[in-house]
Amino acid sequence: MKLKSILLFSCALLTASSLYAQVKISAEIRPRTELNQGLKTPASDGQKASILTSQRTRLNLNFKNEVFAVGAVFQDVRLWGQESQLTTNGNNVTYIHEAWAEWFMDEKLSLKAGRQQLVYDDHRILGSVGWAQQARSHDLALFKYKGKVNVHLGLAYNNSNLNNNFYTGPDAYKAMQFLWLNHKGENYTGSVLFLNNGKQYWKNNEQTEQGIYYSQTLGTHAKGSISDVKLVGNFYYQFGKDAGGTDISAINFALDATLPLSEKAAVGAGYELLSGTDQSGATKNNSFAPLYGTNHKFNGLMDYFYVGNHGNNVGLHDIYLKGNIKPGKVKFNAAVHFFSADGKIDDFNQGLGTELDLFGSYTHKGQVKLDFGYSHMFASDALYAVKGIDKNSTGNHWAWVMLTFKPTLFEK
Hints:
It is a single chain. The chain is mostly beta strands and 412 residues long. It has helices spanning 3-16, 381-387; strands at residues 22-37, 50-64, 68-79, 95-104, 109-116, 138-145, 150-157, 175-184, 188-202, 210-226, 229-241, 247-262, 265-274, 316-325, 330-340, 351-364, 368-379, 396-405, 408-411. It has an 18-stranded antiparallel beta barrel. A hairpin with a 3-residue loop joins strand 16 and strand 17. It is globular.
């Protein structure tokens, strides 16, 4: 996407504005430096720590009046040093992360169509994946109804060829539909989600006939409080067929409790189960897939599980303790996770390891945010076996620091 096109789009929004319209142009610049030795998978023996800096740069354009709204997010994601110092627009370094329009049919009903982020409940099944510099967005039509029960119906169907109905693109599904029902009470919020996920496959070796295997995810999310304890829970069941045509029977259960100790401190604990498949003897796929959620938010910050990995594997039990304190302008957080497998691991016990996460944040005058953290994975022999890595003597740790700038450039 060339800079000229972005400027023309911005001018079109400003020209379309009226006394009853809202126009906002904002930006985001977010560099993050990481020291990595054993992130996502244990470091191999003798592996040296790497240091890299990634950066997300965004230009956000939004327009809204009583009839419709449009939004666009132009995004550039890169590693420092990845592009030549003499980079030109021909290198296609900027692309569209979001480009959608929403039609307000009346006060309760609207249709939002285009490339957009999907964020529902706690991000477990559908999330923006905001930690990843590139984040996630979908191409779909989204019908929304506002009432005592809010209803969202999403419809997506992907194709990559004008002359036939074959899909050979990079996305995770050929077709996807979901229905989300949400009710907010005085002291609680409850949701029900049904998601039908279709993955394409070739019916013959000549790749002249394509079919779709569908899996279904049905479940509920709820949050509320008992006395001062804040509770959040999930339960989802998956069935249907996976991408290889194997029958699925899998569950996800989670419960999180947080107790505020004061306005500046809190402690909590939780448990999550993502069912898994035994390494030997299984006839069904019992591995729960969190699909399109923000998986970095769950199961430890080092991303050993379900962040582009651990799919169709032995699953996970995650028991954790957490706490935070804000003695001044800096907020400090800590969490410890005790991991074990749900499915049986050949020749090993179920314990996978323990992860310690320490992280914090500081905001300067509400305009610049500094985040930082350190994590260490105390991996068991079973985790090395599951990941297919020979055990090392160097340890597995990860440290990071990130700056975020989000200025509003124009608002009317």
